[in-house]
């Protein structure tokens, strides 16, 4: 329900900015751009089973080939706030985590349509988790689903060997796709609202998140 409310607010905000967006539709785009933004992060699929709605920040730069086509490279930090109920059940003392990503993306603007654009691409994703306190898991222990984030090997519902829940990182390739809208603030400075879906193909369980970003682009 909260996701729908936030997305609805974002759409309403974009519509209310229509006059400003219309003014910018005829303007040429600079060759080089930089951007930064922040906003809530909504977890999808199995990720939503383990982590709460949280926050994310993103920054990057890009190059415009034309008014309609551009490219960008971005780094995003996405907080993975592990649910208390999951932590308690899985013997995690004070767990935390985040997803870092470095992506190369194509940007496709719709000329004369109120600053609307599509964006998508792929890149490198690193999921990092901390248990808060190292915990030894003996072989033959009944598995908890979130232990996959610590790369614990399970079969037939039990651990196959002894494992330690401590700090763990998992690198993977991933893809993203989304859409947004630019609106003029002053001169070259523009604001933007953007919704994207990221899918990182981590081992055992993929990480799937949908960040909603409110930012500036110059």
Explain what you see.
Mean pLDDT is 88; it is low at 5-26. This protein has an 8-stranded antiparallel beta barrel. A two-stranded antiparallel sheet has the order 7-8. The longest helix has 15 residues, at 2-16. The protein has 218 residues and is α+β, with helices and mostly antiparallel strands. Strand 9 and strand 10 (189-200) form a beta hairpin. It starts with a helix and ends with a strand. It has helices at 2-16, 18-24, 45-50, 84-89; strands spanning 32-43, 51-52, 54-64, 69-82, 96-109, 116-137, 154-155, 158-159, 163-186, 189-200, 207-217.
Give a brief rundown of this model.
This protein is of the alpha+beta class and 218 residues long. The chain is built from four helices and eleven strands, in the order H-H-E-H-E-E-E-H-E-E-E-E-E-E-E.
Give the tags.
218 residues; alpha+beta; eight-stranded antiparallel β-barrel; two-stranded antiparallel ribbon; 4 helices
Structural class: alpha+beta
Helical residues, percent: 10-25%
Largest sheet composition: 8 strands, antiparallel, barrel
The largest sheet has its strands arranged as 1-3-4-5-6-9-10-11
Mean pLDDT: 88
Could you tell me how far the N terminus lies from the C terminus, measured between alpha carbons in angstroms? 34 Å
**Approximately how much beta-strand content do the residues carry?**
over 45%
What is the H/E string? HHEHEEEHEEEEEEE
Write the layout of secondary structure elements.
Layout: H1 2-16, H2 18-24, E1 32-43, H3 45-50, E2 51-52, E3 54-64, E4 69-82, H4 84-89, E5 96-109, E6 116-137, E7 154-155, E8 158-159, E9 163-186, E10 189-200, E11 207-217
Antiparallel strand pairs: 1-3, 1-11, 2-4, 3-4, 4-5, 5-6, 6-9, 7-8, 9-10, 10-11
